[in-house]
UniProtKB/TrEMBL annotation:
Protein known as: General stress protein 26
Superkingdom as given in the UniProt entry: Bacteria
Organism placement in taxonomy: Bacteria, Pseudomonadati, Pseudomonadota, Gammaproteobacteria, Lysobacterales
Pfam families per record: Pyrid_ox_like
Domain General stress protein FMN-binding split barrel, residue spans: 22-166
Gene3D superfamilies: Electron Transport, Fmn-binding Protein, Chain A (2.30.110.10)
Organism listed in the record: Solilutibacter tolerans
Amino acid sequence: MSETLSRPTRHIDMTHHDTGAQREKLAELISKFRTAMLTTLDAAGHMSSRPMTPLGDGFDGAFWFATEIDNAAVQAIQSQASVNVSFMHEGDNHYVSASGRGHIVTDRAEIERLWSPALSVFFKGGKDDPRVCLIRVDVTEADYWDGPGNLLTKLAFFATVATTGNHEALSDTGSVKL
């Protein structure tokens, strides 16, 4: 793991910073990702992560995922609602980790609202299949790391850190409470 990622996240005191700006930064980073890792905790205390595709037009404080009602993630959320959603794009050096509470949603109107034709690849019965449900994750806290992405900015970052000792010179990290 690179030096830039092994340092602790700089926590932001939301009473002294623009919360709206931090949420916008988080939403901007999240919009760059196409796949998330949803981590759940089962009744026996075992964590399990699985790739999921976020649904919807943008991050508004919640993530939505489509799955089937008999999926292990659904069972885990029903026994322990605390979940984590993480995103990684190593090439651009963008990372997000969001904690929250998972909820199972079977409302057909919500499924219709969030459905896209691409989901038919995963659900043979389509949006009308009674086994299709949604997982909504209401985010309570998120950490992000937005570091230098291309080779030139990475080299500039390493040179700046080497000469100044300032690890935060070209990267942005923070925590957002929602």
